[in-house]
Automatic annotation (TrEMBL), chain B:
Organism: Mesorhizobium kowhaii
Domain ABC transmembrane type-1, residue spans: 95-288
Protein's UniProt name: ABC transporter permease
Compartments (UniProt record): Cell membrane
A GO biological-process term: transmembrane transport
Top-level taxon: Bacteria
Pfam families (UniProt xref): BPD_transp_1 (PF00528)
Source lineage: Bacteria, Pseudomonadati, Pseudomonadota, Alphaproteobacteria, Hyphomicrobiales
Membrane topology: Multi-pass membrane protein
C-alpha cells in the first residue's frame, strides 16, 4: 500500500519536466497528408510534440483527429497512402524522418514500442504467447532467450496476469480480451523500451475489465519509468494515465496542458465538448401505462444459458436503459423482444397482447410497431442502397407510401433527424459514423413505431456525436412519445437518456427501478463494481478505485 | 470525419451527385490501354454477331466453290472448307452461334446457380444441406464426360446443349454464390430486412445480390470463357453444334487435317476463340479491380 501511494505521488510530482535535459521525443511542425481517391486530405497540420523521459503524454481527440497517425509518426512510420510533407521527428537525437529503414527497424521494438487497440488482431493465433512476447528480444538480440522469458514472467506478474509462469504456454484464443491486452503490454515492455505508444489500448474492453488493464498498464509504466504516449478518445481515461494532455482536432493541436489544469480549467471550448455526454441529464417523466412487459424470460444458446428469469416493464413514452458488461445478456434480451431469438420460457406482452416468440409468426403491424436500431450503422445499412432507398422501402412496406408521397415523407424524416435533403442520394459509405446512425434512426422512424429497441447505438461514436444522437432521441421521444429500450454499457449515457434502469449481470436482472434509485447507494455488489468502474473526470479516480478494491472485490472473483 | 449535421464536405462534390453509370464511364476512360483494346475486340466480335448477314461475303452454308479445301485467294479470303464453303463467311456466322450459345448458357447457369446459392445461404439448415449435397453429386462426375453422356441420352440439339451445359456449369456458380451470400446473409442489414417482413425475392434481389455482384460479374466473364471452350470441345468431338450450322469448334475439327499440309486455316477459328477468351479475361480483371476499389 505504501509503495502504491509513493508511486502515485511520484506521478504527480513529475510534471512537464522541461528542466531535465532534452526531450526523449521531439516532433516539430509535422505535416502529414493523406490521399483519398486522388484528393489530398490534410491529416496533421503542423504538430509540435515533446515527450520527456519517464513522462506520459495523453493524446486525445475524436476519431479522424489524427491521433493514430501522430502515434505512428513517433515510430517513424507513415502509413501507406499518407505522405510526410514537412517537419521533423527526433528520438533521442536520432532523426527518424531521414534515417534509413534499417536504422529505424533497430529502434522499433527495442527502444520504441507500440501497443495497438485490438490485441486480438495483433497476436498471431498460430504461435504461443510467450514466443510472441519475447520475439522482439530475439530479433534485436538484446539478451538470450532464457533471460527474456524470465523477464517476461516477472512482467506477467507485475501486470497481475493469472498464473504468470504458465500463461505464456497458451495460445492467444485461450486468454480473455483484457488479458491479451496486458500480454501485449508485456510484449512491448519486455525489451524495456524508452518510449511506448498506447493506441486506444482499452477502447475495445468492458468498463470493469478496462479498470484492471488500465491499472496494470499504469503500474508497469510507473515501475520502469517508461515514457509513453497514451492515445484515447476518453478524457477521463487519459487523465488517469497522463502527466500532460494534448488535445487534437482535425490535425491541429487545440490545447496542451498539465492534466489537473486541463480538467479544472479547459481553455479551448472544444476541450469542453469532450465530456459533452456527461453534462446531459434527462428529467424524470411522469408515470404512464406499460407498452412492453417482459415476463420471466429464459433463453439459451445451446447449453449456455444467457437469460434467466428476466422480467422488465417499459412504460409508454419512457426510456428503460439496460446496463451491464458484455456477455451479461443485454443484447439477447433485445433480440428476444424483436423476435429474433427463441425463448425457452416466459412471454413478451406488447400493448396488452402476448406476442408470438419469433418474428415469422408476428403480424406486419407488430413488426412495424417494434423497431430495432443496431449498434453499428456500418453493418445495419445496406452499402448498396442510397439513403432514399433505405428510407422509402419501409415507408412503402408499412405505410403504403410510394412515389412523390414517399419522397416527401423521406425528406420529412431527414428533417427530423437534422440532416438536409441533400443527403438523400448518398450511399452509406459517403456518410460519417454519426450521420449513418442518424439514418438508421430515421429508418426506424419511417415505420411510425411505438417502441424502438436501441442496441448500443452510441457506443461506437465520439462524445460530441453521441451527445447529438442522444439529444435527437430525446426530442423525438417528446414529440412522438416513443418508448425506448436502450441497451448500453455506458453509465453516462444512462444518465443522459433513461427514466428507468435495469442492471444485468450473467443473464439476470440484478437491480431494477427508477434511475435515481438504481444509481444511488446502497448498491448491491455488482452495481457497486459497475459504478466504480466508470472513469471519472478526476485524475485521482483510479487511485481511489484501487484503494477501495484492495481485498474487497475483484471482477475475476466475482463469480457468484 | 467530423460529424456535424447540415454541413457538407466540399471535397469531390461533383462525383457524389453523379450516379453509378457515369462512375463506370469515368473508370473506363481512365482504364489502361490494354483494357480499352480488349473492349474494342469485344465490340468487333459483337458487331459480327449482330450484322453477320451484312458483312459476310457468302451465306452460312452456301457452296461457293466446287473445289474443297481451296487455298486463300481474292474471292475466298480464307479459302474454302471440306465441302467448298467460304471459311471467312462461316467464321463470321460462327461468331453468332458460338458466342450466342455461350452467352445464353452462361446466363442460365448464373440464374440457376446464383438463385439456389443465395437461397441456400439465406435458409441454411436442411434446405442448404439438400441443395448442396445434390450439387456435390453433380460435381463429382467429370464435367465433359457427364456432358457427353447426357448429350448422347437426350440427343444433340442446340436446346439440349444449352440446358445441359448450363445445368452442369451452374454447380460451380452455386458454390461461389453460396459462399459469397453466406457472408452477406448474416449481416445486420439482411436481418433488419427480415425483421421488416420482406419477402424472399426482395431479400435476394435487393439486399444480397447488389453486394455480391462485382465478384459474380467477374465470375460471369470467366465462366463464359469456360462454357465457350466446353462447347467448342464438344463440337470438336462432334457432339456439339451440328452441321450445317457454323461453329468455331466444329470448324477446327473439320479442317484439322489441313494442318498436316502446312495450311494455317484451322488455326483461324482457334485464334478467334483464343482472342475473345483473353480479351474477356482482361476486362474481368479490370472490373474486379475498379469495383473492389470503389466498394472499399
Amino acid at each position: 500500500m505504501a509503495e502504491r501511494m509513493a508511486t502515485s505521488l511520484q506521478r504527480e510530482s513529475s510534471p512537464g519536466g522541461t528542466e531535465r535535459g532534452p526531450a526523449l521525443l521531439t516532433i516539430r511542425n509535422l505535416v502529414i497528408n493523406g490521399l483519398v481517391d486522388d484528393t489530398v486530405v490534410p491529416i496533421l497540420r503542423g504538430i509540435d510534440l515533446d515527450v520527456n523521459r519517464g513522462e506520459v503524454v495523453g493524446l486525445i481527440g475524436e476519431s479522424g483527429a489524427g491521433k493514430s497517425t501522430l502515434g505512428l509518426a513517433a515510430l517513424g512510420i507513415v502509413n501507406e497512402g499518407c505522405i510526410l510533407v514537412d517537419g521533423s521527428i527526433t528520438f533521442d537525437g536520432i532523426d527518424l524522418r531521414n534515417s534509413p529503414e534499417s536504422a529505424k527497424r533497430d529502434l522499433r521494438g527495442a527502444r520504441i514500442a507500440y501497443v495497438a487497440q485490438s490485441a486480438a488482431a495483433s497476436f498471431n493465433p498460430a504461435h504461443k504467447l510467450i514466443d510472441q512476447v519475447v520475439e522482439s528480444a530475439e530479433i534485436h538480440k538484446t539478451e538470450p532467450r532464457k533471460r527474456a522469458v524470465e523477464k517476461a514472467i516477472t512482467l506477467f506478474g507485475s501486470l497481475a496476469l493469472p498464473d504468470p509462469t504458465r500463461i505464456g504456454e497458451r495460445y492467444p484464443h485461450q486468454v480473455s480480451g483484457g488479458q491479451l491486452q496486458r500480454l501485449m503490454t508485456a510484449m512491448a515492455m519486455n525489451c524495456r523500451p524508452d518510449l511506448i505508444i498506447f493506441d486506444e489500448p482499452t477502447t475495445a474492453l468492458d468498463v470493469t475489465t478496462q479498470v484492471e488493464v488500465l491499472t496494470a498498464i499504469r503500474n508497469v509504466v510507473q515501475k520502469f519509468g517508461t515514457a509513453a504516449i497514451y492515445i484515447s478518445h476518453d478524457l477521463a481515461l487519459v487523465s488517469q494515465m497522463a502527466h500532460r494532455i494534448v488535445v487534437l482536432k482535425d490535425g491541429v493541436k487545440v490545447e496542451e496542458a498539465e492534466t489537473r489544469r486541463m480538467l479544472a480549467a479547459p481553455e479551448h471550448p472544444y476541450t469542453r465538448t469532450l465530456w459533452a455526454v456527461r453534462s446531459l441529464e434527462k428529467p424524470p417523466a411522469s408515470a404512464a401505462p406499460p407498452i412492453l412487459d417482459i415476463r420471466h424470460i429464459n433463453a439459451a444458446y445451446g447449453q449456455l444459458r444467457v437469460l434467466e428469469d428476466v422480467s422488465l416493464t417499459v412504460q409508454r413514452g419512457h426510456t428503460v436503459a439496460v446496463v451491464g458488461e458484455s456477455g451479461s445478456g443485454k443484447t439477447t434480451l433485445a433480440r428476444v423482444v424483436c423476435g429474433l431469438m427463441e425463448v425457452q420460457q416466459g412471454e413478451v406482452v406488447f400493448d396488452g397482447t402476448r406476442l408470438p416468440p419469433l418474428r415469422g409468426a408476428r403480424n406486419a403491424d407488430v413488426l412495424r410497431r417494434i423497431q430495432l436500431v443496431y449498434q453499428s450503422a456500418d453493418t445495419s445499412l445496406n452499402p448498396s442502397h442510397t439513403v432514399r432507398k433505405l428510407l422509402s422501402r419501409p415507408l412503402r412496406l408499412y405505410c403504403g407510401l410510394r412515389g412523390s408521397a414517399g419522397n416527401r415523407r423521406a425528406n420529412e424524416l431527414l428533417d427530423m433527424i437534422e440532416l438536409s435533403g441533400a443527403y438523400i442520394d448518398r450511399y452509406p459509405s459517403e456518410l460519417s459514423g454519426g450521420q449513418k446512425q442518424r439514418i438508421s434512426i430515421a429508418r426506424a422512424l419511417a415505420a411510425n413505431p411505438d417502441l424502438i429497441v436501441c442496441d448500443e447505438v452510441t457506443s461506437s461514436l465520439d462524445q460530441v456525436v453521441q451527445e447529438g444522437i442522444l439529444k435527437l432521441l430525446m426530442s423525438l421521444q417528446k414529440e412522438l412519445s416513443i418508448s425506448y429500450l436502450f441497451i448500453t454499457h455506458d453509465l453516462a449515457t444512462v444518465n443522459a437518456i433513461a427514466d428507468e434502469v435495469a442492471v444485468m449481470h450473467r443473464g439476470r436482472v440484478v437491480r431494477v427501478g427508477e434511475k435515481n434509485t438504481v444509481l444511488s447507494p446502497p448498491f448491491d455488489g455488482y452495481t457497486q463494481l459497475l459504478m466504480s468502474s466508470v472513469p471519472q473526470m478526476n485524475p485521482d479516480w483510479l487511485d481511489g478505485v484501487i484503494q477501495n478494491r484492495v481485498g474487497v472485490i475483484t471482477p475475476a472473483r466475482f463469480a457468484k | 470525419m467530423v460529424e456535424m449535421p447540415h454541413t457538407t464536405e466540399g471535397s469531390s462534390r461533383a462525383e457524389r451527385t453523379s450516379g453509378r453509370r457515369s462512375r463506370f464511364s469515368y473508370a473506363l476512360r481512365k482504364a489502361p490501354l490494354n483494357v480499352k483494346l480488349c473492349f474494342a475486340v469485344v465490340a468487333v466480335y459483337l458487331f459480327a454477331v449482330f450484322f453477320a448477314g451484312l458483312i459476310a461475303p457468302f451465306g452460312e452454308s452456301e457452296l461457293v466453290s466446287p473445289e474443297p479445301f481451296g487455298p486463300w485467294n481474292s474471292v475466298n479470303l480464307l479459302g474454302t472448307d471440306q465441302l467448298g464453303r467460304d471459311v471467312l463467311s462461316r467464321l463470321i456466322y460462327g461468331a453468332r452461334n458460338s458466342i450466342g450459345i455461350a452467352v445464353v448458357t452462361t446466363a442460365i447457369a448464373f440464374l440457376l446457380g446464383g438463385t439456389l446459392g443465395i437461397i441456400a445461404a439465406l435458409f441454411r439448415g436442411w434446405v442448404d444441406q439438400v441443395v448442396a449435397r445434390v450439387i456435390d453429386v453433380f460435381m463429382a462426375i467429370p464435367q465433359l464426360i457427364f456432358a457427353l453422356m447426357l448429350l448422347s441420352i437426350f440427343g444433340t440439339s442446340i436446346q439440349n446443349l444449352i440446358i445441359i451445359i448450363a445445368v452442369l456449369d451452374s454447380t460451380r456458380v452455386f458454390r461461389l454464390a453460396r459462399a459469397l451470400a453466406m457472408n452477406v446473409a448474416v449481416t445486420d442489414y439482411v436481418e433488419s430486412a427480415q425483421l421488416r417482413g420482406e419477402n424472399l425475392l426482395w431479400l435476394i434481389a435487393h439486399e444480397i445480390l447488389p453486394n455480391i455482384r462485382p465478384i459474380l460479374v467477374a465470375e460471369f466473364g470467366l465462366r463464359f470463357c469456360f462454357v465457350f471452350l466446353t462447347i467448342s470441345s464438344l463440337s470438336f468431338l462432334g457432339l456439339g453444334v451440328q452441321p450445317p450450322t457454323a461453329d468455331w469448334g466444329s470448324m477446327v475439327r473439320e479442317n484439322a487435317s489441313l494442318i498436316t499440309f502446312g495450311d494455317l486455316t484451322p488455326l483461324v477459328p482457334a485464334t478467334a476463340i483464343a482472342v475473345i477468351t483473353v480479351a474477356i479475361n482482361f476486362i474481368v480483371d479490370w472490373y474486379l479491380q475498379i469495383s473492389g476499389a470503389s466498394n472499399g
